[in-house]
Amino acid sequence: MNHLDLSRRLAAVGEFVPAKARLADIGSDHAYLPVALMLKGKIEFAVAGEVVKGPFESAQKQVRKDGLEGRIIVRLANGLAAIEPSDEITAITIAGMGGALIRDILEAGKTRLTQKERLILQPNIGERTLRVWLEENQYQIIEEVILEENKKIYEIIVAEKATSPVTYSPEDLMFGPLLRKTKNAIFKAKWQRELAQREAIVQQMIQANKGAEISERQQTFEAEIKQIQEVLK
Ligand code: SAM
Asked: Which InterPro entries does the record match to this protein (predicted)?
């Protein structure tokens, strides 16, 4: 991939980074996102944080290749430990990981947050887990996007610290408070797929179970099937 030519997914993440932001991109394999945004003149400064040496070196190489060393600092660090107070970060992107890992990174790095930063999160799976963390930590979901690339469906969640407690319903947490209102074609395709998977699992459970008491796991799946059927109506 050319560093200016971001994937649709990463380009969509970049759309939510405010102009003139001071960005921290956490898990910044190759630093593609900060480099592309800097070359476009969208951001002022960036930290590219990576915990693994190989991707960290790739990020360093990319930043050097584009002559951006002064404006993009690449740090080998775990999660938000890449951020220093003097960076004066205004936006954080964490993309291309599971929702539970993004949640763990935010939770472990809470003390590094000034709470003024915009969070732009792109979990590959486990969106509900991440929304629960945002609710518990009083972050308002201000934008949500669902998109498809190479037959994979991705969600992007944009959140900012709220001034009063945030509450989401079980449906908001599962489907996304904004996505479940717009219900576009990609949203419907995702949840049709999720529904079919759960129905197949429950069928297998019923066959394996043969008259025994319904397990808690089966009950959970059955409840989710009802929720999905409802949202798809
Ligand atoms: N953000 C890029 C994207 O969306 O295309 C790269 C995604 S890549 C699949 C995930 C990257 O996150 C890997 O390079 C991995 O080493 C890094 N990573 C995982 N856990 C991390 C952590 N706790 N702190 C920093 N980086 C992490």
From this structure: SAM-dependent_MTases_sf, TrmK
